[in-house]
Amino acid sequence: MAKYPNFRIYIILCLPAAGFRYIINIWGELMRISIGETLAGLRKAKKFMQKDVAHRLERYGIEVSAKTIHNWEKGVAHPNARQFLALCDILGVEDVMWSFAGIHKGPYAGLNQPGRDKAREFIALLSRIEEYRDDTNAGLGQQRHLRLYDISVSAGTGNYLGESSYEIIEAPGYVPDAVDFALRVSGDSMEPLFRDGQMIWVKEQETLGSGEIGVFAYSGEAYCKKLVIEGGAALLRSLNTKYEDVSIKEDFGFKVIGKVIS
After folding, report:
1. Residue 239: which CATH number?
2. Which of 96, 171, 202, 210 could disulfide-link 229, Cβ–Cβ 3.0 to 4.6 Å?
């Protein structure tokens, strides 16, 4: 035994759906590891708040509150299979068995982190080559064509919207039916929810409630911000606290362009 101090044998006794995984190591020790704790650790590594995860689940057609995310992480409740798979996608889980059961399986088994990174590079390269691309799932889901405007909305200092031109793109299958067009975010003031260069999906509407994230035209510029109404005053607020609020004044031309869906 002393000859192999780092050797372990694990036996899975309980699946993730039960909220915990139980493993026995070679010394016969019973270990209980919370699936909720794993989800919380993955979320924090991404620098997401619980409400950020709830918002991202909307693009999968899953509507839950930040409180639900909290309950999952505390083990009070557990996500169903569909919710769990969506969470894995959002949190960047590529090897479910490793992340939630401590077992290396699949194409990355036996590779260290640099090896895994190199494998991902090769996969990305091969996916761009027609000869190796698998289009089996290309017809799944309803594909739609949407406008992608060529000007970014600011998540920082603001950009002019005006009569911007656009291109027509094919929206991924997960994009909700309510979405009318797409834009790209510029700047970091909406991090960690939206990052610089990220594409966002917008539903056209003329009004928003306090606390909702939308796209706004103000003083000749376009913004992606959270609308906050306090004491009768309207503000455009960033999620990144290093940015100050943008105060809305009546004489500067303010308009709600739409609600950010994802």
Report:
1. 2.10.109.10
2. 210
Rounded CA separation 26/21 (Å): 16
By residue range, what is the domain housing residue 198? 144-260
Query: What is the pLDDT averaged over residues 233-262?
Result: 87
Query: What is the domain-level CATH number for residue 92?
Result: 1.10.260.40
Instruction: For Cα atoms 169, 171, 177, give the angle at the middle one, nearest 5 degrees.
Output: 130
69 and 152 assigned to the same domain: no
pLDDT of residue 197 exceeding 90: no
Contact call for residues 255 and 193 (beta carbons, < 8 A): no
Q: Look up residue 17 and give its two tokens.
A: 């759906």
**Res 102 pLDDT > 70:** no
Residue labelled with tokens 């693009």: 59
Short-list 94, 89, 87, CA closest to 111: 94
Last residue of one domain, picked from the residues 70, 103, 136: 103
Q: Please tell me the predicted confidence (pLDDT) of residue 14.
A: 40
